[in-house]
User: Fold this.
Amino acid sequence: MSAGNPPPLVAGSPAALSVRGLRKAFGPKVAVAGIDLDIPHGCFFGLVGPNGAGKTTTLGMVTGLLRPDAGLVLIDGIEVWRDPVTAKRRIGVLPEDLRLFERLTGAELLTYNGLLRGMPAAVVEARARELLEVLGLGDAAGTLVVDYSHGMRKKIALAAALLHAPRVLFLDEPFEAIDPVSARTIRGLLERYTAGGATVVFSSHVMELVERLCDRVGIMHLGRLIAEGPTDRVRAGRSLEDAFVELIGAGDVGAEELGWLGTWSA
Amino acid sequence: MAGHLVGLKLALLRNGLRRSSWPQQVGLALGALAGLPLAGGGFLLLALVPRAEPRAGLVLVEAVFLLLFLGWGLFPLLSFAGDASLDPSRLALLPLRPGQLVAGLSLAACVGVAPLCTLVALAGAVVGFGTLGPGVVLVVAAVLVQFALCIVGSRALLTALSRQLRSRKARDLVILLVSVTALGFNLALQVGARLAERLERADLEGLRPLARVLGWLPPGLAARALVDAGQGRLLAATVELLGAALAVALLGWWWWRSLDRVLTTAEPAARQRTRQAVGLFPRPLRRLLPADQRGAAAAKELRYLARHPRLRVAWVISGLLGLAVVVFVAVTDGLNHPWMVLASLAMAFLASQNSLNQFGFDGAAYWTNAVAGADPRGDLTGRNLATLLTGMVGTVALATALAAVTGGWLYIPVALCLGIGVLALSLGVADVVSVRFAYPLPDDTSNLWAVQGTGQGCLVGIVQMVAFAVQSLLLLPLLALVVVGLLAWPPALVVVCPVAIVYGALVWRVGLGMGAGWLADHQPELLTALSARRAA
Assistant:
């Protein structure tokens, strides 16, 4: 929990991800206002929060893509902002806005990613082919990414994040715009992946999904982690959605508000 | 309704200004300032020439009107003159009839820098042809009809083509075609200017038949109405003006029909043409490029060069320029020397100029490299390798063509070595500039109407000028050696060859070290710079 004093960090910390005092402001707007977090290995961690809560900013800072104003991030005991190269070798990232190299084909994009990470060409090729097949992109391997649908882009970016078998996987809204069949495939894949000791951190708006998949959840609101822990403890007997709405203090629409919605326009 | 759309346009302009940082605002202001001389020039041309040269008047006005009409038709097809308020599909969900939309969008289209400049230029015709008496009403009317022709014609064409333009392949093609057309047009203008010089004034009569043909096009009718009204032939002017107005009405009807179609019919799903996956490395280079990070970066650059519409434009233009050099050398008597083969070095220099913003086409997609913890040195080396390859292909091709013209075959190896030196040296400077002054280049996947990188031009121009100056300064010793060699004893150039390569490689190593060293600690900052102004 962010409340109280978090345990001090020691080098070689056993957690897959440890965060202390992480802050980021854009001008006067504080996006992330000091976060402390520990995620153990093999954990399926769900980060939830309303729009603008700071989830994407947090994931950006944790993965070494956005420089924090203050704070410490350790992945597998390695300080991300002191030794980014070593830390980045252990992570895979699926960002939210999915900006990809549009003029490469799906297969080329995976090869590019693999070689960039220093993997042997033969390994890259074999893994890429397998990933494309499993994710249902086999037929689109030779299509330019610019011509992919949103769901296909999500899948090819996920394949790129998985290619080097990272120990910690960060996924920003991985199931958005994905068809149910692919979503099931990806779920199975991620579950098998965490069963093998890897860690998945993902953000989502779909509470049912987070509730079903994650052993731990963190709820972000206004740049702070207002609740964090094992899913059952955060839920405390309610559905996660109810717990979430209650924690961030958002109410249901009252009977007298928007009363005009029942009166039809011409 | 119309008021709302005009308000929307104004709000978009205002917010576009508010969203940008101060260098961009300065750039935008300078962009507007660049438009003003153009408008002022048009104004003076139309205001002064008809009075000084009455016979040239009609041809001139016809030409200006036609150019304006074509410009309004062509430029919005490229995204840079567009604006989001005019994209009909964005308004598809509002309960508006096409008629209301045509009226509102027409008015909204009259707001902005381009319409203002057009009006200023056209106002020159009122000064140039306006006379006392009833004719002046017709003169003003002719100018307004011409303005309406530009606006309505431009929007009608854009709307009619909007579905085709939305397809990625068509958009790629449009960018290529319009750029090459613009270049061709520019060349034609140069040639035309030369011809005009030779023709002298008296021969303007020779252009009469051309003027007669152009006079039947809608802008030509407006031009004729203007001239006739100015010279007191009011009946003829009225008839011609009615003709031009009819053309506006017809274009408006076409626009209205297209809008109706665009707003009410579903867009067909894009057909995906699957091609055989062939791997990242282009086939002929599979053996040549290392199968590591450097190779991957180089291969990606080469793939982009072949597939990205803006890069295609760049190399088509390079090719045309090369051709122009060959033709120029061939037809100019004083230049037919064997050593003119060394002019092919321009190709090497040009290639390096295109790499002053090596990360620009990555844009926000650079996160892929940043998150992979890619070694900046390998990344830059790969990009340089791709530029070196393409630059040398261009240099060798031009050198060969020039040798065929001048017979300077012996200079080809010299051009080759010097080319490597020039490219390496320039890339060393480009490596530093690319990481320190990166900016995202317009993203081709976005809406064709999106205004992109507004005002970046100015700052970019300054940085590129400084980089150019540094490169030239570093090239001076090499240039001095070559000149001395040519003047004293050309075979001595054999000695200059290894010197050029070693010198270039040294500068490159230093530049690469500086660029990669900075980047190693600043990948997130580069990513931020490249994601700064995402295309709408």
The CA atoms of residues 12 and 77 of chain A lie 4 Å apart. Chain A has nine helices and ten strands.
